[in-house]
Amino acid sequence: MKTKDKIKLEDVILKILEDQIKKRKKKISNREIKKITQDITKKSILKLSEETKKNLDKEIKKRVLEEEKIRNGFENRLYSKWEKAINLYEILGIISLEIAENVKKNISQTKKVMGFKESAIFKIHARALRIYKEIFCLIKSGYVDGANARWRSLYELTVICLFLSKNNENVSERYLRYEPVLALREAEEYKKNYKRLNFRSLGKKVFSDLKKEVRKLENQFGSEFVERGDYCWIPKTILSNRNFAELEKNIKLNKWRPFYKFSCNFVHGGPRGLNSSGMLNWNAQNILLVGPTNYGLTDPMQNSAISLLQITSCLSVLKPNLEVAIFSKIMDLYITTLQNESIKIQKQIEKEEKQK
Q: Buried (b) or exposed (e) across 1-19, using 16+ Cβ within 10 A?
């Protein structure tokens, strides 16, 4: 609020308060003055808010266009600096999709219906590509922390995909059929809170159907399948302690845990996520980054590319052929180039900043 608006608000409150005091014959207590002041303040704030909003309504389009101009200018400058790396990142997604289409075509020529493992890996790959493209949008716009946060999800899919690829059809079936167990838990949480949210009830039939489905799954896979936990679809015979950290160890991907833990900072609300990874000095306390940055893109780009390659590799082994093998190798070569190029760009930015 501008200073003149502040003064106007105070003047309005004082004037109304004076009028109220004059109208009353008896002396007004401090408690009454406080109450009158609070009532007047609420009414004055509402009136001033409505007036200010009317003025702002007239400027919305202009303000938005100004913001768009600033954003486009920044994104153009970012792209000119990171062009080679960004182009490599995008072509990797294109190649990965072409590999998936090739493998799917080859599978469909030999069978009408995919097995559980094939179905699970294809579904994971589709979701992985969506996330990969979301990260691409964040990278092009300079939202480094958001890109790191989305890579975290991509990495989780990578771990699960490699685990399913390593194990038999039964494990993939359990993974795909675990959805009703999670859906029932979500429905139970909703049931506890829907009234406070002023939302509608899900209805008894929804719960009844979910419970029936979960009971069927429990009969098929045993009581361990419906225990509390996000990874209870994993048989205890394969993993006794069923959590993500153990899953990483099982497929020997736990060397990535430092990057995973770092990216968790930008998903959760802890103090480590308050400082941006898109700043030259990540621990800088005197700068609060509220928008995009052109620094720090290397990690989310190369990590996402590697994760996509790992998931694509799981697809490749389902129905290998020469073309798939060639394009998988091209992805690998492009990732090496992407890593080298992005590191070079980032070091150049660091050098330029030191010279300022």
A: eeeeeeeebeebbeebeee
The per-residue pLDDT for 102 is 95
Domain assignment present for residue 2? The answer is: no
In this structure, are residues 160 and 175 in contact, taking their beta carbons and an 8 Å threshold?
A: yes
* Counted domains in the chain: 1
Could you give the percent of the chain with pLDDT greater than 90?
74
Q: Write down the number of H helices and E strands in the chain.
A: 11, 0
**Does the CA dihedral 184-190-192-195 come out positive or negative?**
negative
Q: Residue 212 and residue 105: Cα distance in Å, rounded?
A: 37
The answer to whether residue 9 is domain-embedded is no
In a domain, 144, yes or no: yes
- Domain range spanning residue 156? 61-177+233-355
Instruction: Categorize the per-residue pLDDT at 21 as very low, low, confident or very high, splitting at 50, 70 and 90.
Output: low
pLDDT in tens, 57-87: 888 999 999 999 999 999 999 999 999 999 9
> Does a structural domain hold residue 34?
no
pLDDT at 2 over 50: no
356: which 2 tokens? 């300022």
Instruction: State both tokens at 97.
Output: 């999709």
